[in-house]
Amino acid sequence: VAPAAPRARRARRVAGAAGVLAALAVAGHLAGLSGALLPDAAPPGDTPGAPTAPPDTPPPVTLPAEYAGQWTGDIDIGLGIPAGPLTVTLEPGEAGEVVGTSVSSDLLGLSTCLTPLTLRSVGEQQLVFDAEVDPARSTAAACVSGPFRIMLDPQPDGTLRYSNTHPDGGSTAVLAPRP
């Protein structure tokens, strides 16, 4: 009698597994059948005509319109030491795009450094740009090389405080809108 018991258990396991497989097959058939009976029905979680972008996609970061235009001032390399004029020109655009230029020259006007400004971020109190002097459009005698950041901080009097983070030493300026 002992050898028959394991065979009976094995038969029940096989029958149980076959029953589960049969139930899955019926469920799969019914799911396919519901699609055939209701051809206009969308799959669960899918809405016909719905946008493909996730609804929580933030709007693109853009340069605020009030900063578009030309801003001018004098560069200060620290302790009130002037280094020459600076003009920043900004145009509308989005983060990742070149939205303007920074053009500086030395006090004697012997060298001019033109730096394209790529908008990185816009905060309530600061605009941040990725920058690197364009040697092809600059007279490189006194221009820095390599990438750096330029920040413009709006001031209560309508000016912008310019600063940069170049590894060779930063500079600052107060920029007024050019009429």
Provide structural commentary:
This protein has 179 residues and is α+β, with helices and mostly antiparallel strands. The protein is globular. The protein starts with a helix and ends with a strand.
Strand content: 25-35%
Mean pLDDT: 79
| Number of separate helices | 1
Largest sheet: 8 strands, antiparallel, barrel
Give the neighbour order of strands across the main sheet: 1-2-3-4-5-6-7-8
- Helical residues, percent: 10-25%
Q: What is the tally of beta strands?
A: 8
Using the alpha-carbon principal axes, give the shape. globular
Key descriptive features of the protein:
179 residues; 19% helix; globular
What would a concise description of this structure say?
The protein has 179 residues and is of the alpha+beta class. 19% of the residues lie in helices and 33% in strands.
